[in-house]
Amino acid sequence: MNQRLSQDYSIFDPTLQQVTEAEEEDYFDYFYDEPGSEPGTLSIEPDAFPSRIILIDYDPAQAIRKVDVTPNALRPYLGTNTVSWMDIQGLGSERILKQVGEIFHLHPLLLEDVVNVPQRPKVEDYNEQLVIIAHMVQANPDEMGFASEQVGFVLGKNYLLTFQEDDQDCFDAVRKRIRENQGKIRQEGADYLMYLLLDAMIDNYFPVLEDYGDRIEDLEDQLVSRPQHDHLQEIYAVRRELLSLRRAIWPLRNVIDLLIRGQHSMINDDIKFYFRDCYDHVIQLLDIVETYRELASSLMDVYLSSMSNRMNEVMKLLTVISTIFIPLTFIVGLYGMNFTYMPELHWKWSYYICILIMLCVAGVLIYFFWKQGWFDHVYSLKQEKKR
């Protein structure tokens, strides 16, 4: 279906297909292993953000935060009664990632899923560890669209590992709650921490979709008032980006459903009730995305209709001009035949009489069209040109 739409839109712009294919590569392509590669092979991108570890360890009495922690410094926090959040920001250091995998006994396939990005959102149970892959989106403040990155969660006994592609995230509110002991986060375990982080990621989709709602509304106003050829590419860009959001949200619904209904030893039954709130938010996101996709699809009809109306107005103006000049052309052609015996040609005032007749004919036609309202569109075209 997407390929067919691209082909249809390229009829209007031959360069549109090449541009959109290059952009789709950034949004749609999931990671896939090279044929014949060994399972568990890590693929580090050359431009990947350097890995750094931030540790937050807390209990009801206190909370500590350490920045740029070495992997070996995480060993003392295994098997403690406190909750430890190890946030690995950046996937560019293979040595650090493998050391973390060795310390926490991460399965090679598990480490491959959280490092080789992007992966499809999913949840997998490794007995003593629960793995969740999700996508976090954030609005671009200076550009259209959004920024997307994968976040991998590894939930263990009293600890939570998060793997992010860079240091930009939406977890500051959770960090503040831990630091200032707000709510009951420091009285709960690592499973409650994972719920809060997932909830923050899901809630961060709403402002992104709100921007798309404003963008679609502005685009619709522009299409009605003054449609431009560039609007066609923008319509297709909105459709493509909304499809990308849907591809990130749709499997997330299945992930949350598995967390609620599945039997996972790492998640207490009391915490599963909180994930129902996440599930409800995901359903709302899907409804909003589907609504915006339908509105974006209707923008193409608005564009074609506006362009057709604009063309009709131009053709109407040209028709009026042509209709006025048809009788004038007839008169000029009649007296331009140069016959010898044409009495009017030898009259003293024949030239002025001919001009007067032509002006009268043109004036009568202009008055007739004005009374019929055919010149109303001329004013609208002038106003459109000023805008």
Description:
The protein is α+β, with helices and mostly antiparallel strands. It contains 11 helices and 7 strands. The chain has a 7-stranded mixed beta sheet, sandwiched between helices. Strand 1 and strand 2 form a beta hairpin. The chain starts with a helix and ends with a helix. The N terminus is likely disordered.
> What share of the residues lie within helices?
55-70%
Q: SSE order, as H and E?
A: HHEEEHHEEEEHHHHHHH
Tell me the distance between the termini.
37 Å
The unreliable regions are 1-28
How many helical stretches? Answer: 11
Strand order of the largest sheet: 2-1-3-7-6-5-4
Could you describe the largest sheet, including whether it forms a barrel?
A: 7 strands, mixed
Task: Assign an overall shape.
Answer: rod-shaped
Structural Rg = 34 Å
- Assign the structural class, choosing from mainly alpha, mainly beta, alpha/beta, alpha+beta, or little secondary structure: alpha+beta
Average per-residue pLDDT, rounded, comes to 83
Count of β-strands: 7
Strand content: 5-15%
Descriptive labels:
387 residues, alpha+beta, 11 helices, 7 strands, rod-shaped, disordered N terminus
Give the arrangement of secondary structure elements.
Blueprint: H1 2-9, H2 16-28, E1 52-58, E2 63-67, E3 83-89, H3 94-103, H4 108-115, E4 122-125, E5 130-139, E6 146-156, E7 159-164, H5 172-180, H6 190-203, H7 205-225, H8 230-261, H9 269-334, H10 350-371, H11 376-386
Parallel strand pairs: 3-7
Antiparallel strand pairs: 1-2, 1-3, 4-5, 5-6, 6-7
